[in-house]
Design a protein that fits this description.
With 612 residues, the protein is an alpha+beta fold. Among the domains are: 268-350, no CATH class; 357-611, Rossmann fold (3-Layer(aba) Sandwich). 18% of the residues lie in helices and 36% in strands. The chain has an 8-stranded mixed β-sheet, sandwiched between helices. Strands 5, 6, 7, 8 and 9 form a 5-stranded antiparallel β-sheet that branches. The protein is globular, with a radius of gyration of 24 Å. It starts with 11 loop residues before the first helix and ends with a helix.
Amino acid sequence: MPDRLQTATNAHWKQRFYANSMWWRAELAPQEPSRGMVLSATSGTVQISAWDRLSGKQRQLTHHQEGVFQGYLSPKGRHVYYLRDTAGNERGHYVRVPWEGGDEQDLTPEMLPYTAIYPCAVNATETLFAFTPTEPDSFPLYCLDLYPNGEAGMPRELYRSPKLTHDVVLSYNAEIAVVATTERSQARQYSLLAINTGDGRQIGVLSDLPRGSIYPLMFAPLPGDTRLLAMADHSGYNRPLIWHLHDGRHVDVPLFELAGDIEPLDWSPNGRRILLRHTYRAMQRLFTYDLETDTLTRLEHRSGTYIHAQFGPLGQIVALWSDSTHLPQIVALDEMSGEWQGTLLSQGETPPARPLTSVSFPSSDGVEIQGWLGLPEGRGPFPTILFVHGGPHLLHIDVYDHISQAWLDHGYAFLAINYRGSTNFGRAFKEQIWGDLGHWEVEDMVAARQWLIDENIAQPNAILVTGGSYGGYLTLMALGKRPELWAGGMVRVAPADQISAFEDGNDWVRGFLTAMMGGTPTEKREAYIASSPMTYAAQVTAPLLVIQGRNDMRCPARPMEAYAEKMRSLGKPFEIDWFDAGHGRVSTEMLIAFQERQLDFAYRIVSNIKSS
């Protein structure tokens, strides 16, 4: 480790935070590909910018102090849509702002504020807007008409369910809306429901229950074409299928020669080909598939991660690309071969970064766990950071990661693992945690720790665990369930007690927990208690730092306040910092401050170990 923390303003790790603008989304309007949208933090908080593909210029469209969580570009590029909430609490109203600039327009001024986590939808002709907010004890689908004069109609309710419903997509002319719903399942398994947007009549259901879930992605980009591109996991992995709404048929796209998840990303403008992203053991490759000739074409592009990709103009694929040593950038690929044709938009250069490499090891039951390992300069064993991602149904992939680089700069080894519950490793791998949260994930974390020791990478007495959101939850669970293994833990926002999180969280949290646990706390009380960090607080022995948001409705304040009080009453080595924002909605300066706080916390722990 360095003799001291690198706290100067020009420290390399801080420069990377400023440079890595956290591009969460970048896309072109499919019907007007000269117009694009970028969601980035170049201004210090995440904001939406219009991107002119021809000139390469960006123009910031939102200027909200707390930032913008998501943004969606309309198909013709006329507007961008987003949820205007209060201080990052993900509760408010959907608004839109013209791509050319101007005042935002509230689309639902007559409605009470609502929680909206999942994407909204606008049809290809931009005549209908649809969204799936969460309301007390129910999950509705609303739509409203969009008029040529710029006005919007009143919201109309098309559907309402007591269970999770989201991922709405609209047909080209907006005569059909399709949503994913768990109404027919006792768990987080989805079926598709097709609804006539004119009268709300249900016109079709597509279900794989109990074999698996189906998710809607997009309709064919042609007038009158009601083919829906979807993704199903009944094979054990996510695979594309096409649902023919006119006669109810559904056809799997035959891609049996590829192992792993295959996710459709886009449909060619002529409706003939689909763009596919193949992910196997957290590594990616793009393909195209010709629906008329049943021909699969592998694109020979650079390695790394394609965060988003779509068919663009001039025979190109436009993609948001990154890997562990390159900042996210928008690139052009030849759509027939995958040949790299250049960078369309980038953020410039940063201090050199150390690569992360894919590793794997067996967990306690023999299941193979994959992770991404970074090593600092010098010879091991090193003090080590074990990082667990949020979600849980997400994936740590090969992207530029300023957090890992900050630890590597300070002499720590860094391992991020894709624990049980992560996507891309099969349906059984993802679903094994359902009803028993915090069990198999911790088993995988323990196995990662042992592998780091066996490989002479980590100092056994200097392994610290960290994560945010669900990763923060797992950090608390690991410290409580296996306290003898860890030198310390660092949490950025986490639910500390599942029952009170259910009581205090937003409507989405209650739906999420009900689906993941197989019932409410009243129905599954013992399971909720067994899956709560509060249950194991008395067993924690390692120093613990928590950084928690006061306005976070996914990880509400009261459970963590109670956890903090219990830790103090037990005399545990516990520190907590509160910040006034929502779930991850903070500025770059705050992110740097959080990272510096964690570096200092870990430095003190490891220094004490060295001196003892």
